Amino acid sequence: MAENPSGTPSDDEMLQALARHLSGDGGAVRLDSSAGADLSWHSVLDCRIRRTTETRKESARTEKGRKDLSALPTYIHLADYRPGVPAEHGSLHRIELVREGSVRHNTCECGNGEWACKRCEGRGRLPCDPTTACPDCRGLEPCAECDGTGKPRPRAKDRDRAAAATASRTVPKRVRCAKCRRPDAACPTCAGRGRTQCSQCTGTGLVDCPKCTGGGTVAHDACGGSGVVTTWVGALIEQRSREELVRRPLKRPPFPVRRRTARLGRWRKAVLTGDDALPGDLDATHAEALATHLVPAGEVHRRVVLRHLPLARITVPTDPERVFYAFPGSDGIEVLGLPSSRRVVRGLAIAAAALAVVVLLLSLLG
User: For a FRET experiment, which of 31, 82, 196, 352 has its CA 20 to 30 Å from that of 164?
Assistant: First the structure.
């Protein structure tokens, strides 16, 4: 008989359970290895290993304004800080820390949160052209007599020609020129000057700076306009977790067996952390498979959640058409019988033959 871990049913116990199962079909049955029964173990293992690695970085920090850091955990020596057990969910977890005694609320160099505006250099106003081109004549023909110069044209015929040209156009009635004083010669909007007063500066030659709206100062960017800058030494711990699954056997049992064991199996469960030893009742092949996965890989924390179930596969010469699976259940050893592979192949062959006959008959009738 094969030796099994403590608490696992022995080969004899599995065979006796199968004998009771077969006896229920009628007649007493006695099974053991001498009777030709073939028992092999295919115990099931489902294991999830969650490893957590971390990085730690310390740096000087600066923040605008008076920043409240009282809610953040503190440390003295970053290497000595213990963040506790990582969260069960999520692959990335960040922890912000503040070094004890490092927080300072410093008065900014600006003093009051304001800084001279760079656009106007603190003056609050910008130069502006006090006049603009006349919107009507656009400065092209402000006066038919002097063209806005204030000096009449030298020849009368030129004046007459200009006056005739002006009279022929559909333009507002001309007025006396403010420069050469000739009546009915100048643009009525600019009176022969060619330019009008700027509406932005109302002729003063200065406008309010759009950056500081005329105040000459703006909020100081370095302190966010608060006049205070907070500095401290902080650290960031990043924990990254990954999971790996370990399942045995690699070739999973047939689906009906998986369904029955999930519903009725008495699974043994364990949660391991750190250097916890594997359960003593774990199948030897499972323990060997897990040993390679539990070699430390630079993690700061490891959590292993596993469940395992002893499962035996049994064939008996008196019933070659079936293969049996036995496993511990809540009310004792459960037994499930399935068609053997030979029976399945034969059934498929019969079905294929029947199908061929049907096809042949249909072809003959057609």
Answer: 196
pLDDT at residue 270, as a whole number? 95
> φ and ψ at 165, to 5 degrees?
-65, -40
Task: Tell me the pLDDT tens digit for each residue of 41-85.
Answer: 999 999 999 999 899 999 999 999 999 999 999 999 999 999 877
Closest CA to 246 of 42, 48, 41, 43: 48
Q: Which of 86-90, 99-103, 245-249 has the lowest mean pLDDT?
A: 86-90
Q: What is the pLDDT of residue 2?
A: 41
- Residue 320 makes CB contacts below 8 A (sequence gap 6+) with 340, 342
Q: Which 3-state string (H, E, C) describes the chain?
A: CCCCCCCCCCHHHHHHHHHHHHHCCCCCCCCCHHHCCEEEECCEEEEEEEEEEEEEEEEEEEEEECCCCCCCCEECCHHHCCCCCCCCCCCEEEEEEEECCCCEEEECCCCCCEEECCCCCCCCEEECCCEEECCCCCCCCCECCCCCCCCCCCCHHHHHHHHHHHHHCCCCCCECCCCCCCCCCECCCCCCCCEEECCCCCCCCEEECCCCCCCCEEECCCCCCCCEEEEEEEEEEEEEEEEEEEEECCCCCCHHHHHHHHHHECCEEEEEECCCCCCCCCCHHHHHHHHHHCCCCCCCEEEEEEEEECCEEEECCCCCCEEEEEEEECCEEEEEEEECHHHHHHHHHHHHHHHHHHHHHHHHHC
